[in-house]
User: Fold these one by one.
Assistant:
Number 1:
Amino acid sequence: SVGGAGGAGGTAGLFGDGGDGGAGGESLGKAVPGGAGGAGGAAVLIGNGGNGGKGGLGAPPGTSGTGGAGGQLLGLDGLT
């Protein structure tokens, strides 16, 4: 089994920051890979994209999940 993936951050409204992605699930002492971090939410017009979530800590070492991508600033092009 694998640690669960973190949820994606929510998209912002016109003005505001995207939500941060959730962290990936951790192995908690069992020999399972960590889950991937969720992607950060997008900002639409003004604001910052959310941070990607951290990958979960896996066991054995080297099997941790990958971190999620940061959210994008969509800009006016993202509205059309």
Number 2:
Amino acid sequence: EYPQDSLAREAERQIRRLRNQLAERELSIAEQYRVLRSPQSALIYYDAVLDDYGDTDAIERAFVGKVEVLIEMERYDEALSTCVLYRQLFPNGALRERIEQLRERIPARGARAGGSP
């Protein structure tokens, strides 16, 4: 109702801070599931960050984690499409080199076991 009020601005700052904390928490849970060798569970939490916290500092790391898990699970098409989406959303992203390294690890369709060219 009073967007120019100093309390409104402070409330917005606090909301951003708390959303960042929640995103970091989800990211931490995803990483813990990776340590526990539960990639499917980790994927759920990476997706939660991507779906619910796109406005936070954790978003790029969630993309990287998701691609790493998808490669581990041999879900190469999804990993590749996630890399493409990252590059579209963050053409100058801080983690673009890491995403490119991961993309290079994805086997070409014809080289995959049981895959067709």
Number 3:
Amino acid sequence: MKIALVTSNLRGGGAEKVFLRIASLLSAREHEVHVILLEHLVDHAVDPALTVHGLTAPGQPCRKGFIGKRVAAWRLRRLVRRLERDGAFDLIISTLPFAD
């Protein structure tokens, strides 16, 4: 299966660690897993088997508020369309409020 897991960023503690653990477990079962970050902010070790995509430059937060959400949605739609050129995602899961 081709799976996209979308979250705001990988900073912080529990939820982000669980997110990465789930992504690694899915990858270990030979699924094609894409981790999509609205902000390319990473504080945790990432399994090299995972493909990570950031909608911003590494270390750069995204803009907040109405405009920031619209820009993030546009970038996300553009990225998903590009990634689906090789085949559609079977499953897309978003986590945490800003990513929904």
Number 4:
Amino acid sequence: MCKNVKALNTSMIFTALLVMFMTIFSELNSGFKGFLKELTGHHWATKSVVTFVFFFLVYFLLRNSKSNLKVEDFKTSFVMVKISTFAILFFYLWHYFV
């Protein structure tokens, strides 16, 4: 079975953004964090399940698209993962010190 690398890359980008938004939003909104906790017993467990399902859902939706991955696609994915990582890091630093 041939994998569509571009679809996997795109799915990874959107999944990284989803994790960033869920993490920050759950810290700012106790109702959302409580909702996540109610689903599986812990908010991080729910985020993990949502992330897993979301990644494969996006991949399966895009798997029949053209699979011509370019260098720019790798650069975009690298930048988006860095942005997501630093957004979460700086949010927690701000949350802790301010």
